[in-house]
Amino acid sequence: MKKILKFKKVFLGFSLLLALSSGIVILIYGFNPGIDFTSGSLWQIRVPESSSEEVRDFIETEYGIDKISIAFDETENIYTLTFKEINDTERKEIISGFEEKFGEGVEDLDFWSVSPTVSQELKDKAKWAIGLVLLGISLFIAFAFRKVSRPISSWKYGIITLITLSHDVLIPAGLFSLLGTYAGVTVGTNFMVALLVVMGFSVHDTIVVFDRIRENLTRYGNKLGLEEIVDKSVIDTLARSINTSITLIFVLVAIYLWGPVSLQYFILAILVGTIAGTYSSIFVASPLLILAKGKGK
């Protein structure tokens, strides 16, 4: 029989290195919060025959607004601007200035602001959402595998799922901490939604592997040892897991490269999390089950 999990220490060591690195990066640099979490205004405008530098300089010089974040969609000449909170009167004044400087082709497409009170509420709810989803999924897995108590207690399936999901969230979070520090990328509610999507995909993949382990424990429990059963289960589900993930990764890469610029970082978070989740479902969750074997329940 082919053995994949004989390298389990290598797999777990690699994941531990990535997770620890991400955690250290987050502790050192933190995140660059977007207006969802800090308050401010987001404005989408079309300014033909212009550049990001010209738009930035114009707003800073004429209206004294600094710390502007600009995303530019070259195909549509659309700028997505984020900066401190401004009111509707100030917005109309700025758009009039744009029309005078850049001509009549300027279009005011979308504008919204987030107050400090709302941004704090969004931040708190986002943290609760991530925490409750992690806890809820872990409890559900423990309940779903309650009839599988030998040789591993059902609650250990839940704990291992919690560990793998934390791993899958931590890696894209570490990447975005670096991007926020060196590229000015902000995190907001879209980033939190991306992490929830990652958790949903990852737990699906993990359940597929765990369910095959449960079947094989019933079928071969008296004939094979736990490590052999887990290894066989991983081999049984490996092709399906990788093929499903690759299909999704192709779609995500296509959207990232050719989709709307406003979705790029949202897609990037899902893409990195999907890769981490595919790896953890096979090469982290399964080895941890072997290590979790112990006496009693």
Low-confidence stretches: none
User: How does CATH name the architecture of the largest domain?
Assistant: Up-down Bundle
Shape: elongated
Helix content: 55-70%
- Strand-and-helix sequence, N→C? HHEHEEHEHHHHHH
Number of strands: 4
| Overall structural domain count | 2
The helix tally amounts to 10
Sheet of most strands: 4 strands, antiparallel
Radius of gyration: 24 Å
- Calculate the mean pLDDT score and round it: 87
CATH names the topology of the largest domain as Multidrug efflux transporter AcrB transmembrane fold
Note the main attributes of this structure.
Multidrug efflux transporter AcrB transmembrane fold; four-stranded antiparallel beta sheet; 10 helices; 297 residues; Alpha-Beta Plaits; single chain; alpha+beta
What would your notes on this structure say?
- The protein has about 300 residues and is α+β, with helices and mostly antiparallel strands.
- The chain folds into 2 domains: about 210 residues, Multidrug efflux transporter AcrB transmembrane domain (Multidrug efflux transporter AcrB transmembrane fold), CATH 1.20.1640; about 70 residues, Alpha-Beta Plaits.
- The protein has 10 helices and 4 strands.
- Strands 2-3-1-4 form a 4-stranded antiparallel β-sheet.
- Helix 6 packs antiparallel against helix 7.
- The longest helix has about 35 residues.
- The model has no long low-confidence stretch (mean pLDDT about 85).
